Known about the structure:
By secondary structure, this protein is α+β, with helices and mostly antiparallel strands. It has helices at residues 4-18, 48-59, 63-70, 74-86, 92-106, 111-121, 128-139, 146-159, 187-203, 206-222, 248-264, 271-283, 311-322, 331-334, 346-356, and strands at 27-35, 38-46, 126-127, 172-173, 183-185, 232-234, 239-242, 246-247, 292-293, 298-299, 302-305, 337-341, 343-344.
Amino acid sequence: MTGHEDLQDLALRGLRTMYDASTGRVPQTMRLVRTPEGVRLRPEGENLRYDGMVALGLSRAGDEAARSVVGEGGVMAYVRTVVERAKGSAELGEIALAAWCLGEICGEEDTVLTSRMLTQLGAPSVATVATSWALTATTSVPQGSAGLHEVRDAALARLLPAQGPGGLYPHLLPASGTLRAHVGSFADQVYPAIALARLSRARDDADALSRATRTVDVLCRLQGSAGQWWWHYDSRGAEVVERFPVYSVHQHAMGPMTLRDLREAGGPDRSAEAEAGVAWLEHHPESLEDLVSPRHSMIWRKVGRTEPPKAARAIGAAVTSLRPGTQVPGLDALLPPGVVDHECRPYELGWLLYAWGRS
């Protein structure tokens, strides 16, 4: 089986392929496409969130490895470009990730980012993921300002009431919409767990640790028999709404990094579940295709269903909105899983380095 060190080496090679020295950025994605000259990787778009996640990953890969990707300025110079771009953003996720990077990697706070996080957290509706990143940012600075403490309190005021009785979260805070209001993705669970685990360490907060543990306990109980971390959950209880796609980044990075943070905060050791998730990359039962591609230095994004776009998610959301815990019979036969998405996003490789590198 491909080991963690092999995957980290592949991630660094992949990021070298992705990074554009002329712009100082990584793309939104690298997609495998057919051309008259043969199959090749094509960079598409840009995403400031992904720049921040790559910076965090490189910060745990070591100085030499980071310079091999982003040049002689290394990861600290790269972070400062992320921060400057984020100052012009009105999107909470971009701002929060930049603040997280600056605090964790450079040990600094930027008052512009702090002020903008606080403003955005006052919106009528905020995303669970972005709110969690803002909370994590407040724990990344050794001595945060009074403004950063306000951000912490504002983020907690949005997150804590939204945690369902089973320990899970919806996609938006407060939960809104009609048929999908109760649905939260895997990301909507792991990022609050990470944020609360770190808060518990920073403030010796037993309630924060208990809340993070409750979320992780549900995810581990629902983990698939081949180590799959499923996609969508019912935040009103503790059930899966829709299993597919299974995303590779959940398996090799987001699952393990969450379990690592919980363990380091004094929570239970879930190493077995983390290893089972990584093993899925090689032993996935849904498809005959390889997900790890040494030839391209990529890990393909996901295994999904053969379906119209997001059809299974819509069906699962509609059914569970009416009858919680209901599973749609015959869905796997009607919309069978097995389709591999031949793209790889930079944040996926960044989070892989972050999950398994040294703190």
